[in-house]
TrEMBL record:
Name recorded for this polypeptide: Phosphatidylinositol 3,4,5-trisphosphate-dependent Rac exchanger 2 protein
Keywords: Exonuclease, Hydrolase, Nuclease
Family label: Belongs to the oligoribonuclease family.
Keyword Magnesium belongs to the record: no
């Protein structure tokens, strides 16, 4: 049986949801083992973009990234996309040097994956092709056990990358303890 690698929790805040026309504004990473114990916590990296990139954001992004302070932080940042990728990849390799072992995790993480594939290809190439998507677990709870979903911890919805990761880990921990029942 193949080695079970760590879970690489990544959340990105973007200018929109289209990886072809939008871009990453912020990325954060936390690495856990399979039992959701934190092995490493990376920085919350805000990537510089000029004003004209931010001017192309949709209404939702303008409102939420403005309210959270992210828009101002993007303009003030000096970090490039490549530097952000290097930082996150270094963190991942510090916990899992072997390529294609660590598994990407998060909420609706397939969206983050599309952006990583476009803007941070070395990072995505280092990760396993499988993903752990907490949103999928939530959808299964909605269909198979709505009571479990109703009791799930409320989210703060700060729309900041590191906060979102912490909430995703807590959400999966809740589903593990209340939805996936061990019979052994």
């Amino acid at each position: 049986m193949a080695e079970a690698g760590p879970l690489v929790w990544i959340d990105c805040e973007m200018t929109g949801l289209d990886s072809e026309s939008d871009t990453i504004l912020e990325i954060a990473c936390i690495i856990t083992d399979g039992s959701l114990n934190i092995l490493a916590s990376g920085p919350e990296i805000v990537i510089h973009h000029p004003q004209h990139v931010l001017d192309g954001m949709n209404e939702w992004c303008v409102e939420h990234h403005g309210k959270s302070g992210l828009t101002a932080r993007v303009l003030g940042s000096i970090v490039t996309m490549e530097q952000a990728e290097d930082s996150v990849l270094d963190l991942v390799k510090s916990c899992c040097a072997r390529p294609r072992v660590a598994v990407l995790a998060g909420n609706s993480v397939h969206v983050d994956c599309a952006f990583l594939r476009r803007y941070m290809p070395r990072l995505i190439e280092h990760l396993h092709y499988r993903i752990v998507d907490v949103s999928s677990v939530k959808e299964l709870a909605r269909r198979w056990n709505p009571r479990v979903l109703q009791m799930a911890p409320a989210k703060k919805l700060s729309h900041r990358a590191l906060d979102d990761i912490i909430e995703s880990i807590e959400e999966l921990r809740y589903y593990r303890d209340n939805f996936f029942v061990s019979t052994g």
